[in-house]
TrEMBL record:
Name listed for the protein in its UniProt record: Phosphatidate cytidylyltransferase
Keywords of this entry: Cell membrane, Lipid biosynthesis, Lipid metabolism, Membrane, Nucleotidyltransferase, Phospholipid biosynthesis, Phospholipid metabolism, Transferase, Transmembrane, Transmembrane helix
Subcellular location: Cell membrane
This protein's record includes keyword Thylakoid: no
Pathway the protein takes part in: Phospholipid metabolism; CDP-diacylglycerol biosynthesis; CDP-diacylglycerol from sn-glycerol 3-phosphate: step 3/3; Lipid metabolism
Spans traversing the lipid bilayer: 6-27, 39-57, 69-88, 109-128
GO biological process: CDP-diacylglycerol biosynthetic process
Enzymatic reactions: a 1,2-diacyl-sn-glycero-3-phosphate + CTP + H(+) = a CDP-1,2-diacyl-sn-glycerol + diphosphate
Length: 199
């Protein structure tokens, strides 16, 4: 008689369900000292941060052997979008993007960030010796800028709800580690899911 065999790692949806089950079980075992809202926040945080960074690791180990190139391409596009949005917004920004969530961001700055990110990805295309076609470079730059700016807004939204200015104190003046990485953990999964990188 053959025993039941199970091979790890589990499928992603299995792992997510088991994680959800464990957090829900904590509410029972602690007799609701850990409430459902806390469990939900912990679950969301694990998926938000954990899966975001797992896709960063996936970018480093793409099947085409150019993982380092793709990783730096995404990081450079994110950083150039942030810088472009900041400087263009300071220069000509006059229309608020979403003042209820992030009062300093402007529509002009957001568009400037998109343009600078796309130009940055084009530079990578020209230097890639054919690894990155121009059309894909433009799509990656666009995806990095839009998803990255949405990542910034997501973090601004939850910080506003909880009345906090910074996500941590490890980097004084920079808002904390998560503030430096909030775009990464949205952009890397999005670019992979959109199938813009080789597998």
């Amino acid at each position: 008689m053959e025993l039941i065999r199970y091979t790890f790692p589990a499928a992603v949806e299995h792992a997510i369900w088991l994680l959800l089950f464990l957090f829900m079980l904590v509410t029972v075992l602690t007799k609701n000292r850990v409430g459902i809202q806390q469990a939900a926040m912990l679950f969301l945080g694990v998926l938000y941060v954990g899966m975001g960074f797992s896709y960063l690791a996936d970018s480093r180990s793409t099947s085409d052997g150019h993982g380092l190139f793709w990783t730096f391409l995404l990081l450079a596009s994110i950083w150039s979008s942030d810088a472009g949005a900041y400087f263009v917004g300071k220069w000509i920004g006059s229309h608020k993007l979403w003042p209820a969530i992030s009062p300093n961001k402007t529509i002009e700055g957001a568009l400037g960030g998109v343009v600078i990110a796309m130009l940055t990805s084009c530079v990578f295309s020209f230097l890639s010796s054919g690894v990155l076609p121009l059309g894909r470079a433009l799509l990656i730059g666009l995806a990095c800028a839009v998803a990255g700016q949405l990542g910034d807004l997501i973090q601004s939204a939850y910080k506003r709800v909880y009345g906090i200015k910074d996500s941590g104190t490890l980097l004084p003046g920079h808002g904390g580690i998560l503030d430096r990485c909030d775009s990464w953990i949205i952009v890397f999964p999005f670019v992979h899911i959109a199938m813009l990188l080789p597998y």
